[in-house]
């Protein structure tokens, strides 16, 4: 059930990534100030945007879980956050590499954009021990949903607060008076954003399918009175 | 902005910038590969578990059947099926649960 549509989604992701990488390296012009180094922009920014969107989507799934009391939505919420955390790690690492090349430092502590992104990451890093601390599955799912909604609401607020603050070194490219991208760069960036979104969706579906298979195997073992074996994870919700 | 593009003298030389770009893309690919490797291990575990369950189901079917049926049940099958028929002791509720 969770694997439905995974194949076309995977193919679309691969095709879009091939197009995006071709555009990044053969179509998008070399930026005047940063030169070739600016190519990291097409990886770092989509990673960060999709990760933040993923957290918000995780919060929306958590609302659906609390409203409908269906464990499926908890699984969706958990997996969305899980994949977004991985994307956040990617965003932090690629950002640090770009910062080293551009500013000469891996990290700048007085830059609000960087620090706020780190705060979001650390906030969601507590999601796992938070789930792990609760034994009862139903309570665990409910509390995790409340966490996902609260943290999911914090993400756009945090983003707006950072936009309103004064930036020291981190560039503001979009929706600023002096900013804006030429069409060739914008097209490439939008392709990269779509590719990253497709990758996120594919990984979410892939993870859900694997969890579903694991859950069904457990049910099968129970039905046959076979030894269930060691629990694979106490944190992840059981997907039927 | 357009006139700034394709300038020949960027603040970060392209040969140095290239190393950082390669580093960033490699980090991204490595991250993806690590994820795929972890998922592959999980899927291998599920596959192993399915094999065990299939063996138990076949053995149970063999126990409850006539000697001829038992021989047929224990004989190697061309492919592993994931459809499980509960043994005679299984309740109708169990049968319902195991149905895909």
How would you describe the overall organization of this protein?
- The complex is a heterodimer of chains A (240) and B (100).
- Chain A has seven helices and no strands.
- Chain A has one domain (21-27, 37-215).
- Chain A is an all-alpha fold.
- With 100 residues, chain B is an all-alpha fold.
- In chain B, 65% of the residues lie in helices and 0% in strands.
- Chain B is built from three helices and no strands.
- In chain B, α1 packs antiparallel against α2 (67-74).
- Chain B is rod-shaped and about 85 Å long.
- Chain A binds chain B through residues 29-40, 43-44, 47, 86, 89-90, 93-94, 97-98, 100-102, 180-182, 203, 206-207, 210, 213-214, 216-217, 219-224, 226, 229, 232, and chain B through 1-2, 4-7, 10-14, 16-21, 23-25, 27-28, 31, 35, 39, 42-43, 45-46, 49-50, 52-53, 56-57, 60, 84, 86, 90, 94, 97-98, 100.
Layout of helices and strands, plus pairs?
The complex is a heterodimer of chains A (240) and B (100).
Chain A: H1 6-27, H2 41-68, H3 71-103, H4 112-125, H5 127-132, H6 137-164, H7 183-223
Helix pairs in contact in A: 1-7, 2-3, 2-6, 2-7, 3-4, 3-6, 3-7, 4-6
Chain B: H1 14-63, H2 67-74, H3 92-98
Helix pairs in contact in B: 1-2
Overall structural domain count of chain A: 1
The shape of chain B, in one word, is rod-shaped
Q: What coarse outline of chain A follows from CA principal-axis ratios? A: globular
* Number of discrete helical segments of chain A: 7
Assign a percent range to the helix content of chain B: 55-70%
DSSP helical segment count of chain B: 3
- C-alpha Rg of chain B, in Å? 29 Å
Question: How many β-strand runs of chain B?
Answer: 0
């Amino acid at each position: 059930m969770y694997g439905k549509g995974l194949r076309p989604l995977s193919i679309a992701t691969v095709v879009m990534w091939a197009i995006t990488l071709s555009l990044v390296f053969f179509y998008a012009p070399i930026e005047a100030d940063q030169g070739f180094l600016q190519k990291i922009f097409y990886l770092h920014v989509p990673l960060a945007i999709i990760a933040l969107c993923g957290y918000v989507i995780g919060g929306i799934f958590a609302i659906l879980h609390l409203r409908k009391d269906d464990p499926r939505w908890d699984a969706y919420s958990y997996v969305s956050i899980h994949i977004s955390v991985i994307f956040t790690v990617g965003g932090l690492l690629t950002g640090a590499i770009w910062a080293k090349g551009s500013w000469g430092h891996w990290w700048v502590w007085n830059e609000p954009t960087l620090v706020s992104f780190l705060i979001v990451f650390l906030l969601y890093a507590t999601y796992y021990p938070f789930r792990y601390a609760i034994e009862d599955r139903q309570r665990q799912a409910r509390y995790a949903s409340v966490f996902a909604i609260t943290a999911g609401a914090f993400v756009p607020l945090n983003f707006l607060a950072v936009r309103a603050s004064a930036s020291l070194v981190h560039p503001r490219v979009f929706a600023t008076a002096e900013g804006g991208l030429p069409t060739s760069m914008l097209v490439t960036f939008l392709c990269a954003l779509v590719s990253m979104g497709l990758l996120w969706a594919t990984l979410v579906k892939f993870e859900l399918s694997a969890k579903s298979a694991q859950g069904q195997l457990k049910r099968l073992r129970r039905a046959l009175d076979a030894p269930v074996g060691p629990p694979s994870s106490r944190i992840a919700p059981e997907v039927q | 902005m357009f006139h700034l593009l394709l300038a020949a003298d960027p603040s970060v030389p392209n040969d140095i910038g290239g190393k950082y770009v390669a580093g960033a893309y490699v980090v991204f690919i490595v991250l993806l590969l690590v994820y795929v490797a972890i998922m592959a291990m999980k899927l291998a575990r599920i596959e192993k578990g399915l094999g065990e369950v299939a063996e138990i189901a076949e053995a149970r079917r063999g126990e409850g059947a006539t000697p001829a049926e038992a021989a047929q049940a224990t004989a190697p099958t061309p492919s592993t099926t994931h459809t499980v028929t509960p043994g005679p002791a299984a309740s109708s509720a169990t049968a319902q649960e195991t149905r895909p």
